[in-house]
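call fold(seq) -> tokens
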Amino acid sequence: MNNNPLIQRIVIDPEVLSGKPIIQGTRLSVQYILGLLASGADTKEILLEYKGLTHDDILACFLFASTSLDNNTFTPLTMQTA
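ret:
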């Protein structure tokens, strides 16, 4: 996927969270961490709440999301009006 060593912090295991990408050694999904950030939590808050996480784990979530989006093709949806 990417040669950046941060990406190795993200794992996919069908036995954990139905195969969602998670931070290695946790049950915290990339989606969950990004959702916290999107809802206004900052990195410091997340690191205080989840003691085992590191700043690099959060960066790995961003890298995973960015790489995932980079490997997709998007088709714009058009909106029909009545």
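The first strand starts at residue 10 and ends at 11.
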